[in-house]
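Look over both lines before class:
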Amino acid sequence: MYIPHYYKNEDLNEIKAFITQNAFGILINQVDGKPWATHIPLELEEDAQDKGFLVGHIAKANQQWRAFSEPQEVLCIFNGPHSYVSSSWYQEEEVPTWDYIAVHVYGQLKVLSEEEVMQSLHKLVNKYEKESKNPISLHDMKPSTLKQVKGVVGFKIEITEIQAAYKLSQTRPEDHAKIIEELSQKENAGSKAIAKAIKEKS
């Protein structure tokens, strides 16, 4: 994606934390010559050599997976908070803008075996059940219930490139205090999160 140099984030640890915290991403590839996108959890994993991977699965009813057998690079998009920024908050006249955080991840996709898919599903469920009042475990489910794994296609994406845009009014440091104040007063969570991010980066 297009990222002006002052908005580019190259702090890999920060980017990994962002992906982990915003793991519900968008998987994009080409299906019959047309871009195809699916919104799914994409979990970040690393091997012993610190090489990064994204692991996920989609329904077999989703024809996107039929292109997985082709040697094809895929794109995964992770969206963070975003907010409109009014130029009425600036000391000097300027057009308004939009602040946001977004990460694009490119990689080579490999289809997982049914056993590998089940392992990834156990990890996924255990991760998100931690905050449940009555956490469930796939270990406690009947084999007949778990047969649903046959209805999904699991995959692992070897990460080849990461592009991270953190557009946080970096070009207007003189206006940060006012921007943070105004965004903090907004009702929506995105504006408040952007205010916090600007403050942390200032």
Q: What stands out?
A: The beta strands are 24-31, 34-41, 43-46, 52-59, 73-85, 97-111, 152-167. The chain has a mean pLDDT of 95.
